[in-house]
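Many introductory courses stop at the sequence. We go one step further.
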Amino acid sequence: MTTGSSAEHTRRDFLYIATGAVAAVGGAAVMVPLISQMNPDASTIAAGAPIEIDLAPIADGQIIKVFWRSMPIFISHRTKAEIEAARNVNLATLKDPQPDSARVKEGHEQWLVVIGICTHLGCIPLAHQGEYNGWFCPCHGSAYDTSGRIRVGPAPTNLPLPPYTFVSDTRIRIG
């Protein structure tokens, strides 16, 4: 009769290891979809999950476009001249009178955040265009100033403001 030493591997040891490996792979295969289904759906994110934007790389006078809720959002880093031009407007001459101070956050007057959709028929205006150096809608000729207020053209109201807050001096959260 032959006896095996405890140091030798038997067929039974192999079956234990193989069964354990299959169980581990099967457990991982079950856990991956279970964990990934906990992430928000792409349609949920598109439906309005807040987004954060770093403002640090935006130069004075530059306007960037980001998307939130499938809408273009214009973030303008206004120069001192643009801020002064927006503040020195006679409100009685505006179609939709609104002071510049009501369109920006206190202490952050250099940042203007607007929804980039023309209030006439929903076109996307062009930045730094038109006689007021704000936005110009080429579809029907609406011109907005550096505060996003309608100055001339068929648009009935100013460019709308999205809900946003300053998380820090160089970051905002939209939504």
